[in-house]
């Protein structure tokens, strides 16, 4: 039997869940879990880990499918996944922290840190917001690879390298199952200020890394490989749903990595030539939906992995999704700045933003 199109399924599920908003929270979350599993199957995602985080606590967690199909290893909440572009949210928090502490200026030219960069005339602000200055003002174009010089800028406010600065940030938030690039285990302590125990911990995490898959039109999954092998400002970071819950709660707490004023800055996009906000702020997309501000980011490695974080600041609720195929992001045109093209996002928003 031919499967129903993914978008039609999402619409049906959204309408069904919407009727439950006045029911008990446990029932709503149970139905959300069921519908998320249906979307996972339709999207051809072998393994998916997910969480809904409230203002001060984790409200719901779920693990679906397999992190390794061939060995029949079920996905767990502590399964490590590649974050791909979602890493920008964490990297940008470090960059904004560095700026808040006076170590760098957000309008410093890229040439100050990477003179040979093709974006040498741009500013750190423009890289983080995916904007380019033109005669008529700023224009938006989502190109994560442009963020490479941010690594050199951020390294200036750490005691070692960009990688070590990221590892220190992760440890400060107790994100102990996150790895700053799979090649970190090739280092020998004390290279880049890493200790032998930290390198051993990273090695242990990587042994549990979700297997990446390419999935064909019939939903058949074939093991593939990850493109990212090192840490950059927009790729290579490995983490778990549990660790990303800690990151989200740290942002909501408002002490580290960002104070409330710095977080407000990070979530404020620049304006374009018409005076309207552009789609991307500092590490995050920002858009309006049903009168609410939605802050989100996604990551994808073709035929390997995908991820998504969506937060509704006024309501203090966040969705975290990690997958070992591209199904969370493809074929949806998320890079244009509209998260509602994703059926996963629409399912979440239909419940929490009405």
Spatially, the strands of the biggest sheet line up as: 3-2-1-14-13-12-11
Alpha plus pi helix count: 10
Pattern of helices and strands: HHEEEEHHEEHHEHEEEHHEEEEH
Overall number of strands:
14
The CA-CA distance between the termini, in Å, is 34 Å
How many structural units, i.e. domains? 1
Secondary structure elements and pairings:
Elements: H1 6-18, H2 25-43, E1 47-53, E2 58-68, E3 73-74, E4 81-82, H3 87-100, H4 124-129, E5 131-134, E6 137-140, H5 150-155, H6 162-172, E7 179-180, H7 196-206, E8 213-215, E9 221-223, E10 237-239, H8 241-253, H9 260-266, E11 285-289, E12 292-301, E13 305-312, E14 317-323, H10 343-352
Antiparallel strand pairs: 1-2, 1-14, 2-3, 4-10, 5-6, 7-10, 8-9, 11-12, 12-13, 13-14
Helix pairs in contact: 1-2, 1-10, 2-10, 3-9
Supply database-style keywords.
354 residues, alpha+beta, Beta-lactamase, seven-stranded antiparallel beta sheet, 10 helices
Kindly describe this structure.
This protein has 354 residues and is of the alpha+beta class. The chain has one domain: Beta-lactamase, CATH 3.40.710.10. 31% of the residues lie in helices and 20% in strands. The chain is built from 10 helices and 14 strands. It has helices spanning 6-18, 25-43, 87-100, 124-129, 150-155, 162-172, 196-206, 241-253, 260-266, 343-352, and strands at residues 47-53, 58-68, 73-74, 81-82, 131-134, 137-140, 179-180, 213-215, 221-223, 237-239, 285-289, 292-301, 305-312, 317-323. The strands form 4 sheets. Strands 3-2-1-14-13-12-11 form a 7-stranded antiparallel beta sheet, sandwiched between helices. It has a 3-stranded antiparallel beta sheet with strand order 4-10-7. Strands 5-6 form a two-stranded antiparallel sheet. Strand 8 (213-215) and strand 9 (221-223) form a beta hairpin. Helix 1 packs parallel to helix 10 (343-352) and helix 3 (87-100) packs across helix 9 (260-266). The longest helix has 19 residues, at 25-43. Residues 13-24 have low confidence and may be disordered.
């Amino acid at each position: 039997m031919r499967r129903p199109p993914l978008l039609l399924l999402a619409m049906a599920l959204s309408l069904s869940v919407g009727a439950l908003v006045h029911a008990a929270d446990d029932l709503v979350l149970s139905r959300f879990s069921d519908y998320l599993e249906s979307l996972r199957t339709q999207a051809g995602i072998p393994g998916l880990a997910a969480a809904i985080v409230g203002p001060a606590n984790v409200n719901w967690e779920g693990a679906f499918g397999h992190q390794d199909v061939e060995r029949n290893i079920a996905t767990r909440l502590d399964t490590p996944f590649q974050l791909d572009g979602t890493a920008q949210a964490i990297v940008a928090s470090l960059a904004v922290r560095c700026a808040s502490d006076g170590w760098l200026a957000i309008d410093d030219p890229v040439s100050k840190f990477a003179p040979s960069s093709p974006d040498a005339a741009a500013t750190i602000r423009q890289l983080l917001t995916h904007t380019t200055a033109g005669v008529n003002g700023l224009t938006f174009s989502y190109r994560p690879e442009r963020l490479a010089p941010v690594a050199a800028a951020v390294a200036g406010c750490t005691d070692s390298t960009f990688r070590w600065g990221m590892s220190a940030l992760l440890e400060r938030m107790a994100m102990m199952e996150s790895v700053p690039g799979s090649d970190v285990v090739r280092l020998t302590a004390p290279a880049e200020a890493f200790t032998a125990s930290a390198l051993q911990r990273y090695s242990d995490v990587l042994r549990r890394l979700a297997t990446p898959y390419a999935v064909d039109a019939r939903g058949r999954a074939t093991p593939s490989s990850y493109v990212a092998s090192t840490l950059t400002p927009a790729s290579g970071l490995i983490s778990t749903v549990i660790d990303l819950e800690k990151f989200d709660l740290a942002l909501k707490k408002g002490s580290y990595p960002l104070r409330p004023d710095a977080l407000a800055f990070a979530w404020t996009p620049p304006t374009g030539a018409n005076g309207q906000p552009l789609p991307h702020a500092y590490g995050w997309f920002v858009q309006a939906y049903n009168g609410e501000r939605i802050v989100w980011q996604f990551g994808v490695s073709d035929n390997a992995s995908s991820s998504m974080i969506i937060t509704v600041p006024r309501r203090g609720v966040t969705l975290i999704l990690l997958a070992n195929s591209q199904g969370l992001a493809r074929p949806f045109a998320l890079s244009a700045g509209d998260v509602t093209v994703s059926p996963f996002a629409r399912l979440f928003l239909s419940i929490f933003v009405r």
